[in-house]
Amino acid sequence: MNLSDFDFTLPPDLIAQEGLAVRDQARMLVVRPSGPFEHGGVRDLLNHFSRGDVVVINDTRVSRARLIGRKETGGKADCLIVSDLNSGEEKDVLLRGKAFKTGSTLTFEGPDGVTLSAKITQWLGGAKYKAMFSDASLIERCARLPLPPYIKKNLSEETRYQTVYAKQEGSLAAPTAGLHFTPQLMQELKDKGVVFAPVTLHVGLGTFAPIRTENLEEVELHTEYFSVNPETRNVINLALKEKRRIFAVGTTSVRCLESAMDGSWEGWTRLFIYPGYKFKMPWAGMLTNFHLPKSSLLLLVAALTGWERILPAYLEAIERKYRFYSLGDAMLILRGI
Questions:
Q1: Which of 124, 138, 213, 245 is an S-S bond match for 128, by CB 3.0 to 4.6 Å?
Q2: Residues with Cβ < 8 Å from 184, sequence gap 6 or more?
Q3: Which conformational region is residue 2 in: left (phi greater than 0), alpha (psi within -120 to 50 degrees), or beta?
Q4: Which residue, 165, 176, 174, 91, is CA-closest to 130?
């Protein structure tokens, strides 16, 4: 099984550049183990989730970690902070463009006129450097949310790239399946008896990084922090004991709990899930978006329900002009267990 087996052609005009005005008005394609695919909307979750179902959500919050400024020469400086924003004045950063000189200074300005500078202190290889910021407390005022490279438009509202239940700061990308929920939809599901169980997995650079190894057994993902709080542990354990259905909202929720099932409820994971993986959780299904070809996210979806089922679903979604990627439409996978 090779990476090139998980490819498809996507027309560029189907890559969503902005979210819908009302989050839960997105379309949703339903994939069952067999039979025709079903076409509807995200609010149809009210018909698919039942009393007692547990829905696992990732409550990570996207950090304002991207800075756009100037070099000393006047050229553009595009900086992504990849270390903890609360870790002091010196940060690990990724800088786009030609090589930057150690000792040079970058300058950034916030919308309120505040100025922040960063001196490059060390080259760490590739596009990664260490930089000493003049005042790390000003980063929040000068920075913006990092967006995936395939989104070319600036968002009119940054909150559109945060889930309504985002709580734990630390991600470089949103857990995008969760972007479809509104407070009203969540309350309606709770009123029906559905239980939401928050976990935390801070989405890192691996979400944007393409897989470069053809042999899937040789793939290594970037490490990402995960945590499952005691209340959610109790909810999951009780649901398992009572044999109630457990659903995941997004691939990050799956990876978080699958990582926790290895014996630790908190830590760092580089778990790579691809077809052939033996799931530890008896997932009843997953709500997810439509993912990039040959991506780790697509491979996880294929592992959950089979590539022979997912590829025809993607081709039908393309034919019916579903909106793809982070700000696009949704897919509900029902495993029938």
A1: 124
A2: 24
A3: beta
A4: 91
Are residues 58 and 250 in contact, defined by beta-carbon separation less than 8 angstroms?
yes
Q: Position of tokens 């040789």?
A: 218
Side-by-side strand order, sheet with 246-249: 38-41, 27-31, 330-334, 285-289, 246-249, 54-58, 195-201, 224-227, 266-269
What are the extents of the domains in the chain?
3-62+153-334, 66-142
Distance between CA atoms of 311 and 158, rounded to whole angstroms? 32
Q: How far is CA 245 from the centre of its chain?
A: 23
Beta-carbon neighbour count of residue 285 at 10 Å?
A: 24
**Contact between residue 131 and residue 162 where contact means Cβ atoms under 8 Å apart:** no
CA atoms within 13 A on the CB side of 327: 24
**pLDDT tens digit string along 21-77?**
999 999 999 999 999 999 999 999 999 999 999 999 999 999 999 999 999 988 899
What six digits make up the tokens of 89?
């004045």
CA distance 136 to 63: 14
The fold adopted by the segment(s) 3-62+153-334 is: QueA-like (3.40.1780)
Query: Which residue type, as a one-letter code, is found at position 18?
Result: E
Q: What is 66-142's CATH number?
A: 2.40.10.170
For residue 188, what is the DSSP state?
H
Please compute, for residue 24, the number of CA atoms within 13 A of its CA located in the half-sphere on the CB side. Answer: 15
Q: Running DSSP on this structure, what letter comes out for residue 52?
A: T
User: What's the rounded Cα separation, in Å, for the pair 191 and 329?
Assistant: 25
